[in-house]
Every structure is written in structure tokens, then in C-alpha cells.
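Title: Prediction job returns without error message
Component: structure pipeline
Severity: low
Priority: P3
Assignee: unassigned

Description:
Job completed but the reporter wants confirmation the result is attached to the right record. Sequence as submitted:
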Amino acid sequence: MSGEPEHLLILCVDRDDDLGVKARVQTPVVGRDAALAAATKLALSDPEEADANAIFAAVKRLDELSSKGTDCEVAVVSGDINRGIDADRHVSREIQGILKGSNYTGVILVSDGGDDESVIPVVQSLKPIVSVDRVAVKHSQSVEETYMVLGRYLRMLVFDPYYSKWSLGVPGLILILAGILTVFGKVLDAELAALLILGGAFFIRGFNVDRTVAGLLHRGPTGYIRFFSMVTSVLVVVAGIFTGYSDMIMTPAANAVAADPSQLFIFGGRLVGYLISGSLNLVWAGVAIYATGALLSHLARDSVRWRRDVFLLVMLGLFYLPVNTFSEFLISGTAESTLLLISYILLGLAATFVLTTALYPRLRTKGFTDRD
């Protein structure tokens, strides 16, 4: 085998068939003159086409090797405009046709990089590749690779279910609702709907709500308990905030501020007091629902973290009176409310001190903060 004369095929592959689509050149093209004619025709049809430069480079390599006494030939094969497996099969068939007529000992692949080099395994399965020449003309390789990367990301955004629901699903829902509302003359409602949908999508993805919910539901019955308590607590807290806001805007202080915004410095504290007073019960109930759901879930899973939930419920009860008294102090500002506020704060601090210094260390030694 070592004494066999070297006979090389200098091969240029046009995987996306620019020769056939742009220059109407039929492949395979074999021979120096035919390759030059094909490259010239392709360059005239599209002066910025990188495959034309790759063919010229293949002819130049032929001349260089021939001048050194190496027996070689140049050929150009093409694939399919849709790339993929059809292109590789077409390239394989054309290379087999070329190899059938001559006893080539190896192949020198001349490529403009990027997509064309994906046929290397195809060529290697038919004849050994002794060298690969990469041709980069005015950064055409980097540009082509950039387009390939962008193409992959675009396909991911369109066909990957995880990404398509955000890249296509959310904008599609906005367009549908906006179109329906616009038909009925609700242009402002369409804008509001778009803002709400976008805000909801950003909130869900930003705080990882979708994965958190999916993780909860995968836990089985205990996960459903946590999910129900979480949704219910959010609804109750939102209802509490709206209730407090409604109570606040119905007060004389709100009317005074609406008539003269400079009065906000006088009645601002009172308005905050009405907001806290009106929303306190529901907000506290919402937080308690969440803690209770977590408690039931941890008890059902026999997790030691139920102690933390009990601790949270106790602290929630301790903070209720000081916060409620604080809202009354903001509203009335009387000496009685001031004394009550101070006394409740002191009692809350004392109870918190007892819990954190006496009970918390004992609970911690029993696995209070262990992960389940």
C-alpha cells in the first residue's frame, strides 16, 4: 500500500445547493475548467456568495499541488436547499459517482466553514480525508456561524414547548384579546389587557412561579395542599389590600387630600392608618392560611419543618395587636392609643424574646431547621 501512487481528489461541497439555485449549474462538476466556469457563474449571480470563493480556492489548491508533481483532480458537489439529511444523501450520491470512475487515494476537502463542514462524516465514510482547507473571505465564516447560531435559537423559540409558550403563546394571547376587544370598540380595554398579560407573564417567569407550582404538584397530595393554600392566601391578601384601600378612599381625610394634594402631609399618616386597619384582618388571615397549609403539608409528609410553621403562626398572633394598635394610633393619635401601642409592643417583644431564646434552640436541636 505504501508504494501506491498518490491520486487526490480536491473536493468542494456546496451543501445548500447555491450552484443549482442561484447559478443553474448541474453538479457534480469535475475538472479545472468546469470548476472555474461554475465558480464564475455563481460569482456573477451573487458576488457575495462564499461558495464561489471556496471553489476558486479549490482550483488554486489544484494548481499548487500539480506544480509540485502531485496527481490530483478538482470536483464540486452539491446537496439540497433544505439542508438536513436530504442534502447529505445527495452529496453522498454525487461523491460516489465521482469515486466510481477513478482510483483516488484520498480527499482534500475545501470548505468555507460553517454548514458545509457538517458533511465531513459523509465524505470520511467514502474516502479518507487527508486535509481540510477552510476558506474565510471577509469574515464570511463568522457571519455564517452567527446566522447558524441565531437560526438554532429561533427554532428553539418556535418549536421548543418550554420557550414557545413565552415567545409565541403570550404574544399570541395578547393579539387575540386585543383583536377581540378592538372589534367591540374597547381600545383602552385592549391596552389594559395587554399590560396585564405581559405583567403576569413577567411576574410568573421572574419569580419562577411556573416551576414552583410544577414542583408542588409533583409532590402528590401534600403538594396540592400547599398549592391550594398558596393560591387562597394570595387571593385573600389581595382582597384585604383592596378592602383597606376602599375604606381609605371613603374617609374625609381622602376627600381633603383629593381636593388639595398639599394636605397629604397632614392626613398622610391617617390615610395609612385607615389602609392598615381596613386590610389587616384579611391580610393576616391570608398569611395564616399559607402557614396552615404548609403546616398540614409537613405533617402529612412527617417532616420536622412543621415546627417552623407553628412558630410562624404564633408570631403572627403576637404581631396582630401591635399592628392593629399602630393603625389606631395613626388614625386618632390619642394618648390612650399611644399607651396601648407602647404596651403591646413591649408585650410582643417580651413574648418574642421568650420564644426565640427559650423555645427556638430546643426546637432547633430536634431538627427544626432541617431540610425535608
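Comment from assignee: result matches the submitted record. The longest helix spans residues 264-300.
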